[in-house]
Amino acid sequence: MARAATFSRSLRLFVDRNLSPEALRAELARRAIAAREDLIARGEAPPSWRRYVDGKADAPESSVRLDGAILYRFNLTGEAAQAALDLCRSTSPVRSGRFRDAWVLLCDDRPWKQPLKELPAGATILIVNPMPYARKIETGALEPRIRRNQLERVRQNLMRRFPTLSFGKIFIRLGSGVAASAPYILRGASGERRTRAGAAMTYPALEITARS
After folding, report:
1. What does the pLDDT look like over 143-160, one tens digit per residue?
2. Hey, which end of the chain has fewer CB within 10 Å, N or C?
């Protein structure tokens, strides 16, 4: 799959000079559409995209100026989300496998049940593990032998692979309906945690958004 979010290709037209401007624009549009569909068919671009004609969003290809440009900006959110889930699972510490298999994806704060390739381009995507000990694993407080900052390592990897998207590590609260294990309510403890008893835990999450 192509890693760039935009597709640009020069199309040279050797046509009869007697063709009208309308016919020339129609031929430019036809070739641009054919090149776009060929790229998708070969698996080099995702099927979700937005069109810009002479800088104008969603204008028809046939409106292009003879010296203008047709640009397709492909939506790589689904591909990045799949890569994020794969990395989170493959780098998870495994004992029973429950933590590794618990990763979920939220689209605009709601669990996403459809194919990842259908994720909308402008949405905010969160990858989060709803297990009660997810925060301890991320911060290194669970066991010394478990490497900390898993999500940060995943974030750095994805930033290199998808430079046109933005990746952040944040801490969020989870409501009911995400997983049976969430939200987890903190229990009483000695020291600093005593003041947090009864509060809902915040979970480390990877945030994926489009660059502005």
Report:
1. 766 777 899 999 999 999
2. C
